[in-house]
Amino acid sequence: MWLYCRGRADPPAFVDTLEEDLLEPPLTGREAAFLHDVCREAGALTLRYFGRVSGWTEKSGRGDIVTEADHAVEELVARRLAEELPGHSLLTEERGFVPGHQDAPIWVLDPVDGTRNFALGVPVYCVSLACVAGGKILLGAVYDPVHDILYHAESGKGAFQNEVPVRVSETPDLHDALISVSWSPRRRDVEEYVRIVARVATHTSYFRRIGSAALVLSYVATGRFDGYIQAGISPWDIAAGTLLVREAGGVVTDIQGCPFDILTPSLDIVAGNPAVHRCLMEDVLRKS
Fold first, then answer.
1. Where does residue 174 rank: exposed (0-12), middle (13-18), buried (19+ CB within 10 A)?
2. How many whole angstroms separate alpha carbon 127 and alpha carbon 115?
3. Which is it for strands 106-113 and 89-92: parallel, antiparallel or unpaired?
4. What are phi and psi of 24, to 5 degrees?
């Protein structure tokens, strides 16, 4: 897959994604079965709390919250991982990095992506889990328990909604495209992203900001959304969704149009079908 990459050479410059240059570590088959099963169990666990959240705790600042459901899902996944895939590492939103054996796969977990929605009883949240090894996202799943939909992908094998193959949209440009633009005000300049929204608005009025990065990427992968710009996002929010979009024929890069390390603590990304991704880069972000 060839991507526009601003800043690597005199534009237009193109670079191959880093992931395609990496030797893919082998999977045993147990990992995919574990991924699907634990995501569904974790989602069922969140439903016990959904609509019954009595309060939450703030973490890094106003708006960054955690509920007892987040902790319960992390405990479940950590326990099952230790039992079924001993030696594997775990990176979670609440616990941080829990090391396993050296060079072991790293499972990247967001126990409740869309915590604010979840806490307020808004049925737009999910469980997101991905397996990363050698710098490559090998497996990813995003489970929407409210609607019982499992979006999942394995590197080189396509993306699926439950067991139905999915592809990104064929929207050719930004005219009437459905675009999501979101940012973390704790990490990025709000005014800059309001200007980006204004530039997108010269092409389309169809905006969505739903409060769950993993679900937005799942919607891009299934063709519901055409494109996505997100600033100040963490690995656990986007690891699974990034693989979904790429396996569905889409493109995910950093905001310069370049490949990125999925384990970078704070990321600015652009996702979409290939045509819309290029339009976002050339007609919106290059003018910033």
1. buried
2. 10
3. parallel
4. -75, 120
List the beta bridge partners of residue 252: 271
Q: Radius of gyration of the chain from Cα atoms?
A: 18
**What is the Cα–Cα distance from 220 to 227, expressed in whole angstroms?**
6
Closest CA to 186 of 138, 153, 234, 246: 234
pTM for the model stands at 0.89
pLDDT in tens, 37-86: 999 999 999 999 998 887 656 655 545 568 999 999 999 999 999 999 99
CA distance 108 to 131: 6
When divided into structural domains, the chain yields a total of 2
- Phi/psi for 278 (5° steps) reads -65, -40
Q: Residue 4 domain-assigned?
A: no
Q: What are phi and psi of 156, to 5 degrees?
A: 85, 0
Positions of E strands within the chain: 2-4, 14-16, 57-58, 65-66, 89-92, 96-98, 106-113, 126-133, 136-144, 149-154, 159-161, 164-165, 179-183, 227-233, 251-254, 267-272
Task: Identify the CA nearest to 271 among candidates 178, 187, 195.
Answer: 178
The two three-digit tokens of residue 210, written as one number:
């739903």
Q: Is residue 124 part of a domain?
A: yes
Instruction: Reduce the DSSP state of residue 225 to 3 states and report it.
Output: coil
The H or E element that residue 40 is part of is helix 30-49
What does the pLDDT look like over 123-159, one tens digit per residue? 999 999 999 999 999 999 999 999 999 999 999 999 9
* CATH number for position 152: 3.30.540.10
